[in-house]
Fold each of these.
Amino acid sequence: MTEVVETALPKVRGAALCADGVGIRFDSFQAVQNISLDIAAGEFLCLLGPSGCGKSTLLSAMAGFVTVDEGSLSVGGARITGPDPELGMVFQSSEALFDWMTVRQNVAFGPRMRGASRAEQTKLADEYLGLVGLRHCADRFPGQLSGGMRQRVQIARVLANEPGVVLMDEPFGALDAQTRQVMQEETDRIWRASGCTVVFVTHDIDEAILLADRIAVMTAGPAASVKSVYPVDLSRPRDEDDPSAVELRRQLREDIGEEVRKALRDQGLDDASHDAEEDDR
Amino acid sequence: MTVATAAATGSAEARKRPARATASRLRALGMYTLSVLVGLAVWQLLAMAYGSSLVASPSETLNAARQLASDGTLTNSIIASSRRILIGWGLGVLVGAPVGLLVGQVPVIRQLLEPYIEFFRFIPPVAFVTLAVVWLGIGESSKVVLIFYTAVFIVTVNTSAGVMAVSESKLRAARNLGANRCQILRSIVLPSTVPHIVTGARLAMGNSFLTIVSAEIVASQVGLGSLIWTSRNYGRIDWVFVGIITLGILGFVFDRVLRIVASRVLRRYGVKL
């Protein structure tokens, strides 16, 4: 990452995010239930859980795309009522980029929407493209970039809005293993440089251990809730072979494995659950 | 270092690419020529089989075209028909695209306009030829209005379908970044819909050619439709052939120009034709 340009960025200050007894229903289907989480300003929280457990639903509610049916969600003490530039979202698919705009125009989109001057738009875009190491790609189009680069553009685009909270929905799920690892290291660096609060959804235990201050494990859906919260007391950058990391990984595996087996039993897949148990032994 | 190597391989690639592209373009041109020659041969055989009172042969048609061109009839017909098509079609696109955007984006407008769109788009323009002449006379306006009617619904329906197909994650991203409804319409929905608008415009262009002939047959002194119709009165099958073939060539040229212009100017919006 030699092309990374270290600039005197305006320190983006993180905002505290609070979920208080949150429940979300789609018609008669209860997606998540009774979720309470206090996420401190500047904290990196990973939401970890088996697929289909409602992690993404909860994140969509935090971004204001889905309305909460019970309880409340608030950012910096103010209730979340709809999409808000304060709550930046990095989507799983880079389809969320605007293909007809250059990379710079994509990153300058938020400032442009709030009426920033052209000079300020360019300045912000170039600063954050520098932070993610893509300033040399500013005049290219998203379709000309690799998957990892496109996700970095998404991150720069969200940061250019200087949000208090960045919500990331399995942003590296579609990337190959090597790119994924680079992106995880980059995310760690960028998060520390920006100082914003991050809520990061993933089903990858190693990813969570590498990035999170705390890991919230969710129960299997429907009516998913937070099963347990693990603090990750490891120095950064993280070493995945550190004995406490190894121990944490074991605990998380056990915790999530239990939920996966429960989910399979609920779906009546008894054979599958036997297999899973045998696999564990 | 890496940049230099990338640039070097890039230029080598770039040198190879045009050569390959030229070769495949030449091959395509060859196939087109072959196909046209086979068509002409079949036409000639049919003309020989049925005689010139039923089918004018290629050479007879060419002679007739020369004859019609020398006294200016052919040129005048082409200009008259083209003008009507371009004005009516152009207005249809100019009105149909914004209306389609609003129909797709604003539920109230959709609910108010949908009954009319769904009603009129099944009534072919030909059905309105008589009314157009009675209401607007036999001047230019009746023809232009009929072409406009032909184009506007096709463009509207295509555009609104395009609006419905705008990627949900792009819309969410725009809202998340602080865009309001107007900004989303202008900065996200319109650019995403451009390929659908272009497709609608092309379909509308094709249909305009259907309409122009029927409109000119009923009420016109000049134009390709009227050329075909008056030739019947003189019993000139060869002139009819000239009219028909000119229509086909004109339509092909219009569509080609539209495709080239659209794919050059609108490439960044994903227009691939």
Amino acid sequence: MNSHYDGTMSALLEVRDLTIELPTERGWVRPVNGVSFELAEGETLGVVGESGSGKTMLALALMGLEPPGARRSGNALLRARGAASNNGNAAANLSGANDTIDLLAIPGREMRALRGRDIAMIFQEPMTALNPVMRIGAQIEEAIRVHEPKCSREEARRRAIDALARAAVPEPQLRASQYPHQLSGGLRQRALIAMALSAGPRLLIADEPTTALDVTVQKQILELLVRLQRELGLAMIFITHDLGVVAQVAQRVAVMYAGRIVEEGPTRDVLRAPRHPYTAGLLRAALRIERGTLHPIPGTVPALDALPPGCAFAPRCEWRRAECEAAVPELRAASPAHRARCVLVAAQTEAVGAHSGTP
Amino acid sequence: MAADIILDVRNLKKTYSAQAGIFAGAALGAGGPRAGAAVDGVSFEVARGETLGIVGESGCGKTTLARMLLRLIEPDEGAIEFRGENFLAARGGKLRALRRRIQMVFQDPAGSLNSRMRVESIVGEPLVIHEPHLAASQRRARVLEALGSVGLDAGALNRFPHEFSGGQRQRIGIARALILRPDVVVGDEPVSALDVSVGAQILELLIRLQSELNLTYIFISHTLPVVAQLATRVAVMRAGKFVEIGDAAKVLSHPENAYTQALLDAVPEIPA
């Protein structure tokens, strides 16, 4: 709980009004549209959304890996290494811009130096993220030596094996000498985690890292990530479509729909008392181990080139009113830490989930 | 058994042989078929109108089992009695006649629909094979009927699969499976490639179609919550064998097998 961003700490990452535009045959579309959030050191933010919500594009933009031709605007301020982490420190405040690096403004060369060393990313399908014709150990050594050219081969090898051991890979020495196809899906994801953490990043972006895995393996990987995060004081952005997974890993959650954050707050509050009808719908649509509990959200996600003028969820929303279609609602505070992009937030004090189902 | 048994599967086995060759060793790593049987002596009965859910993790043999039920893969051993007839011995016209009674819905609607065919041809193709006497106008009427049952209209006929969302593509796959008016539909992970809210819509559609068309389902998935929505009976599969089979409510709430319990425990829960 004490790792919540509470406004007195300065954030490790502060994203302001991040917008990504992509060219299409029918003009520019915005897969990420005015996204703002803060992430404290050691904190995990869960980013939840369905396909096309913009959650993966958001992650790629923070890594400087958005598709060629994309236009981007806004800021993503990462606190520089060694900068004071407390606003109370007057000296740190005075030094101003030197304290932060804007991930959206720095040249590619600086971004490449930052990637892996300060921000690392793990992906859904470890097989596509690993080089199939290179031994596991060599791939991790490469990740280390790219950032530390002075590191000797022997030193890199030792650290690669340490990294595998830390990711709870059994027989790390043997595994380091093997190729990706010789590892199971769960071990591959562990190897990828080992590689991502090998250069000691402060921020880990995990994009659906357990979606391709079996449930029993997923459970182990989630436990591993939570443990490593605690041990290393990592901040994490955890992208998933699964609210159950978010409940396990994230202290705070941001729900995305059609490129925008529609709800944000402490995970417990958002899951127990959602304030946006889309979040409430996702919670009801989540499958439970019980027959006859299906509650799909009617309708479909709108195409990015055919968004309604107002709230993007309005066409599917059972609480829709005239003002929803007039303009995109602002994020409104439901409580100091909990915000939702819905006109209902001002009009009522109860969670939207409470209005449904029960007679 | 008083129930009307539509499918009776006895001691089904399938072993993939590890071929000698340059990749012989590689296949024994992860992912590839393991040495030993993929399906190792599976027996079960399915009554008309029920839904048997088969749940298991990757490599347990569930997809091989599903494909053997349609004879897309020939079993090494065992017997399949379908509608009282020996399915494995059926040949020629007899096999065709039985095959149209059992249809499959696949996991990935993008991969199982021919991307260069229009929806009318995709959904109507089974009719060309099984009911060649139909006139074009009759065939179109049947295609429209099948599309209508899954919530699509005539506007879909001339479009290509890529013009549809994932959920709509799966609806097209279901329409194709239903156009021959089968008795049994085998679903191999039909919602696992879909988003949560869309997957729930497809499950709801499958439940409605089952009661409207009196279908029997065999529903295969790697996740218990998906199986739990439809199944009247649940089988848990591990390493080619059923480790537990029984009434869905009982297996999902009071499993007898430790592996079933482990699967239940691993499902990430949303706190209430």
